[in-house]
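Module 6 notes. Inverse folding takes a fixed backbone as the condition and produces residue identities as the prediction. Think of it as a translation problem where the source language is geometry and the target language is the twenty amino acids. Below is one complete input and output pair. Work through it position by position during the lab.
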């Protein structure tokens, strides 16, 4: 009898627990469905903000359809199907987010590479411009040096020409002066030698310059003396 009473009490307690747990379980499924739908809707909005409608149009469309189905099931009280469709919508949204994020990362990397290539090209162009400027400066310096050398050679040539002209003028002046000045008369020297027949020997000499005038000095020759005259002409 005691055992039957205890068994009856246990059956009543179990029935009461089941009666209390049923509404709690129903309330838990509703909350889970709401949470699943809210999570799927947030993920779908995130996917669309990342451009998933363009990068993953099929997954985005399927996620939107699954979310709509989950909302419809929740509205008519089908909690389990609503939860399943919401979970499916979340999974599809996650796939779309992944694809969109990958495309975005690829675009960012491509833009970064393009920017790096642009910067590198600009650096190369700048270096080439610097090299060209340095070459132009070197060419300008060389041209200036060549111009200075040419000017120096021209000045030297002018000096040489001036010296040659001065020499030519001096030569012309000397030639003109020589043409205007008559040449000097030749110097004539006459020597007269007189020999006496006896013992005396006397020589008389006379030197004539410019003119052939003979000047005799000494004793006068006698008819018996022998007179010898020698004339020498020296050009001036």
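Target side of the pair, the amino acids:
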């Amino acid at each position: 009898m005691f055992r039957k009473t205890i068994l009856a009490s246990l059956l009543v307690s179990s029935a009461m627990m089941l009666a209390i747990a049923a509404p709690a379980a129903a309330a838990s499924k509703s909350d889970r469905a709401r949470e699943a739908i809210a999570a799927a809707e947030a993920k779908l909005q995130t996917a669309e903000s990342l451009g998933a409608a363009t990068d993953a149009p099929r997954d985005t469309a399927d996620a939107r359809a699954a979310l709509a189905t989950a909302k419809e099931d929740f509205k008519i009280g089908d909690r389990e199907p609503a939860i399943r469709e919401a979970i499916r919508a979340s999974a599809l949204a996650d796939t779309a987010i992944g694809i969109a994020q990958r495309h975005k990362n690829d675009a960012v990397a491509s833009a970064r590479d393009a920017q790096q290539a642009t910067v590198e090209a600009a650096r190369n162009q700048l270096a080439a411009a610097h090299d060209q400027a340095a070459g132009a400066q070197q060419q300008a310096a060389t041209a200036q040096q060549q111009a200075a050398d040419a000017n120096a050679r021209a000045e030297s040539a002018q000096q040489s020409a001036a010296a040659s002209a001065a020499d030519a003028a001096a030569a012309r002046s000397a030639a003109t002066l020589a043409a205007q000045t008559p040449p000097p008369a030749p110097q004539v020297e006459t020597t007269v030698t007189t020999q006496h027949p006896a013992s005396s020997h006397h020589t008389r000499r006379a030197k004539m310059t410019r003119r052939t005038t003979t000047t005799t000095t000494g004793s006068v020759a006698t008819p018996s003396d022998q007179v010898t005259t020698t004339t020498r002409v020296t050009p001036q």
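Reference fact for the lab report: The chain has two domains: 19-158, 185-208+222-236.
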